[in-house]
Design a protein that fits this description.
about 260 residues, mainly beta, Neuraminidase, four-stranded antiparallel beta sheet
Length: about 260
């Protein structure tokens, strides 16, 4: 866990199978009361830690076979992308299972390789599908609404999208992994602009988060072993990283919000 100024605070978890330990952490999120949630692909669960990193509990083993993206919405619900079963699972803040939706396939309410999840101000659920090169949108109960994105390199097209994050204006930031860039869309899926770094290109961007108090976008860049920090200017034509933070962070996938927390 780091401050937004890239100062290291503390580590969460250690390698192992026992409660409080982690085997393959994929993503990290924060609850409305400041707890940390870590999805663990290998242990098929979500592990919960206090704001200081103390182990609290874990849940989801009965319902998760390969969890990846995770987020806590403004109502406290915990949404988990189960990549292995191609479903999205919803839990109460206590970890009690509510429901799940999706299935393996290419239909509207199906996924091929779901990766990340984000929720807008209307509680609509956005899921990136790495293999379908698209973002699928559902209402808060899992009813399919629409999708956007198609495979390609042109602005507005996607090649294996990974991380998702909204700002307060419901601009959606998408890590366009295969095209080594971050793209911005509105909540209806209309393309807005590209965020990239000409002097230090992305190399497979994945997790990202928008930090509202500072209006900064944090993007994990595993191929360059770092986290890049942007101050998005949505009317500008190009973007440079405001600063380069947390170098030599290896194989990071997920990134939290208030304090910057990395899954690695």
């Amino acid at each position: 866990v780091f401050t937004t100024q890239a100062q290291f605070l503390f580590r969460i978890g250690e390698y192992g199978y026992h409660p409080g330990q982690l085997m393959r952490p994929m993503d990290v999120a924060e609850t409305i009361n400041g707890n940390y949630l870590v999805s663990d692909f290998e242990l098929h669960c979500v592990t919960v830690y206090s704001p200081t990193g103390t182990y609290i509990s874990r849940f989801g083993q009965r319902y998760l076979s390969g969890p990846k993206g995770i987020i806590a919405d403004r109502n406290g619900r915990i949404l988990v992308v189960d990549q292995k079963s191609c479903m999205l699972c919803i839990f109460k803040p206590t970890g009690k299972f509510i429901n799940r939706f999706g299935a393996r396939g290419s239909g509207d309410n199906q996924f091929t390789n779901p990766f990340s999840v984000a929720v807008n101000s209307q509680d609509e659920i956005y899921v990136s599908d790495y293999a379908q090169h698209a973002i699928k949108v559902f209402d808060q109960n899992g009813l399919y609404l629409f999708r956007f994105g198609e495979h390609g390199m042109e602005p507005g097209m996607l090649h294996a999208p990974t991380g998702l994050a909204f700002d307060k204006q419901d601009n959606l930031f998408v890590s366009d992994w295969g095209n080594n860039r971050v793209q911005v869309f509105d909540a209806l899926g209309n393309f807005q602009r590209v965020i990239s770094s000409a002097f230090e290109p992305f190399n497979g961007p994945q997790g990202l988060t928008f930090h509202t108090p500072t209006q900064r976008l944090f993007v994990t860049d595993p191929g360059n072993y770092c986290v890049k920090v942007f101050q998005p200017q949505l009317n500008a034509k190009s973007e440079k990283p405001e600063e380069k933070a947390m170098e030599n962070v290896n194989e990071q996938c997920g990134v939290g919000s208030e304090h910057l927390s990395l899954a690695q």
